[in-house]
Q: What sequence folds into this?
């Protein structure tokens, strides 16, 4: 089956579309829950289906080390291994090996690194990253790239040049050994916060005519203003007839701001990670369920929320579970947090299709308080037109 993106509607830069894959259509904009180890933490595949997830992400680096991509291949591929029949995206492992700076050594051909589990020596090259993802059998596979520090120009320049060389090798390996009708290779635009580097990278990456394109190297330490500005200038450089994927972004305000700037795909560990730390995401902002004020609170995590957690349990009960370190607390908070983000994406899609996205986004952001912000704080204006 050929991968195909169909644009259904647009309002300003915001878009609603469908990306067709061998394991079903992905309605965009879309948020992909992260299943690093072939599991979305504390969430069963059955729950993901009930939540309406249409795409999940798994991690090439971690699955190569444990249990091994060859084992997953021999057991029928990642879909069969984790009992998920919907689309799956795998990253290349690049972010993980580069983030383990003390355990890795980079050269022009690839990266040599020590397993963070047992200290054994491993090597990733562009070819190896593609071969692992072929074994995993995911629908969308990512090119092996280098994610640099966003505001160091010399490092960003070297990373862009290396990312381009490695992308060409990934594309060649995928064409030689893979099946482009079964797995779609996405290229990644790098360049930090330097727009001349982003423009150079976008020209090279889109010149390969791939099924989709990602924007990497954001949400890794730069300011919100720099991220939004970089997005606003980078997204128009990408083809309108291909999906645009912003890697590693998932806070509610960032999803709205990024959809407004033309992004289609998102993934992030945030909803399940903050759940394991006792936090709930709401339309007004994040709340810490460890706080004493919720000890006798009979209300749901969020009034009006239709998720399983909010329709069955009080804040007081969820706080009790969190304080007692009960696994059910992690599960209930994860269900709620994922429900919020997935519902938010569906609402934005409906607003774009109905021509009301600008009003929807403005209303949401006016009522939302980001972590660390002050009420009434001025935010970057949404792009219009």
A:
């Amino acid at each position: 089956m050929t991968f195909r993106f169909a644009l259904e509607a647009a309002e300003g830069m915001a878009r609603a579309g469908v990306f067709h894959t061998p394991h079903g259509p992905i309605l965009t904009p879309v948020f992909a829950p992260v299943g690093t180890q072939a599991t979305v933490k504390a969430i069963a595949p059955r729950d993901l289906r009930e939540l309406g997830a249409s795409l999940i992400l798994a991690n090439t680096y971690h699955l190569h080390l444990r249990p091994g991509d060859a084992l997953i291949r021999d057991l029928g591929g990642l879909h069969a291994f984790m009992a998920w029949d919907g689309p799956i995206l795998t990253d290349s492992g690049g972010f993980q090996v580069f983030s383990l700076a003390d355990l890795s050594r980079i050269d022009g051909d690839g990266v040599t690194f020590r397993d963070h589990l047992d200290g054994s020596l491993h090597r990733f090259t562009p070819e190896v990253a593609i071969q692992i993802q072929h074994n995993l059998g995911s629908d969308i596979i990512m090119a092996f790239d280098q994610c640099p520090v966003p505001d160091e120009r010399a490092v960003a320049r070297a990373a862009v040049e290396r990312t381009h060389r490695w992308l060409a090798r990934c594309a060649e390996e995928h064409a030689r050994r893979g099946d482009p009708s079964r797995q779609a290779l996405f290229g990644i635009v790098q360049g930090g916060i330097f727009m001349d580097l982003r423009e150079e990278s976008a020209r090279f990456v889109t010149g390969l005519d791939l099924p989709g394109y990602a924007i990497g190297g954001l949400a890794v330490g730069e300011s919100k203003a720099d991220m939004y500005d970089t997005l606003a200038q980078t997204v128009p450089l990408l083809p309108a007839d291909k999906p645009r994927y912003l890697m590693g972004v998932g806070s509610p305000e960032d999803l709205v701001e990024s959809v407004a700037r033309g992004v289609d795909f998102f993934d992030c560990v945030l909803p399940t990670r903050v759940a394991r730390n006792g936090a709930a995401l709401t339309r007004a902002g994040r709340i810490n369920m460890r706080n004493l004020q919720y000890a006798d609170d009979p209300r749901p995590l969020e009034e009006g929320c239709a998720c399983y957690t909010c329709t069955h349990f009080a804040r007081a009960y969820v706080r009790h579970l969190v304080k007692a370190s009960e696994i059910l607390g992690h599960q209930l908070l994860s269900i709620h947090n994922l429900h919020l983000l997935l519902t938010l994406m569906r609402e934005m899609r409906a607003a774009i299709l109905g021509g009301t996205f600008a009003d929807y986004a403005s209303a949401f952001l006016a009522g939302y308080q980001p972590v660390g912000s002050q009420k009434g704080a001025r935010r970057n204006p949404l792009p219009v037109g």
Summary: The chain has two domains: 4-268, 275-362. The chain has 15 helices and 16 strands. Residues 280 and 286 are 6 Å apart (CA to CA). The mean pLDDT is 94.
